[in-house]
Amino acid sequence: MYLSAPAILLAARPHGETAVIARMLTEESGVMAAYVAGGRGRQLRPVVIPGNLVEAEIRSRSDSQLPFARLELAQSRGPWLSEPLPASAIAWVCALTASALPERNPYPSLYAALAALLDAICNAPSARGWAPALASYEILLLRELGYGGERPEIAGLGAALEILDRNEAQIARYLLADTRADVLAARTVLRQRLGRIGT
Predict the structure, then answer these.
(1) What share of the chain has pLDDT > 90, as a percent?
(2) Which GO terms describe its cellular component (predicted)?
(3) Packing angle between helix 184-198 and helix 84-100, nearest 10 degrees?
(4) pLDDT in tens, 171-185
C-alpha cells in the first residue's frame, strides 16, 4: 500500500522512546493510523499536533501491518493552542473524529467540513463566528454515520449552544459508546468555555 495525500492530524499517541502512532483523516481514504518515527523528536513534535494539516506519505508492506508515515507540515494550528477557547474546540473536534470514524472508510464531506471548521476556529474573531459551524459538524458526523436527521438552521451563538447541548446525548450514546477513553471530557471543557461567552 502507498498513499500520498493531504491529511488532518487527529491524534498522536507515544510509541516507544521517540515515535508516535498518528491517526489522520484523508479525503479519499478516510482515517488512517500510521507509525511516525521520531514523532516526539525536536523536528516532528510541532508537526504531530492534532488539528494540523500535513502532507502524508503512508506506506505498508501488507494490509496486516501498521503503515509507516512521513509527515510534512502544510498548515499549523499551533499558534491557537495558547488560546483556551480555540484550543479546546480543536481538541474536541479532533478527538471526536478520531474516536468516532472507522478506519479506511472515505468520508469526503466530513474531511471538507472538518478542514473548514478548523479554519473557522483559527480565523474567526470570536467563538460566535465558529460555534454554529461546530454544531453543524457534530450533526453532519452523526448523519454520515447513520444517526442524525435533518440539519437545522443555526442562527447565532444561542441556537448553536442549544444544539450542542442536544447533540451530547446522541454523541455519547452512538458515537462514543465503545470508546474506553473519556473523549467527552474535552467536550465538557469546551461547552463550559462557550457558556461563559454566551451569557
Answers:
(1) 82
(2) bacterial nucleoid
(3) 140
(4) 999 999 887 678 999
Q: Which residue in this structure is represented by grid cell 462557550?
A: 194
Numbers of helices and strands, H then E, in the chain: 5, 5
Closest to 89 (Cα-Cα) out of 197, 191, 196, 198:
191
The rounded distance, in Å, linking the Cα atoms of 137 and 101 is: 13
Task: Give the type of residue at 182.
Answer: D
Q: Which own/partner contact pairs does 170-176 have at CB distance under 8 Å and 24+ positions apart? A: 170/142, 171/96, 171/100, 171/138, 171/142, 174/142, 174/145, 174/147, 175/96, 175/99, 175/100, 175/141, 175/142, 175/145, 175/147, 176/96, 176/99, 176/100
Count of other CB atoms within 10 angstroms of residue 97: 25
Assessment of whether the complete model's pTM goes beyond 0.85: yes
Q: Which residues of the chain have pLDDT under 50?
A: none
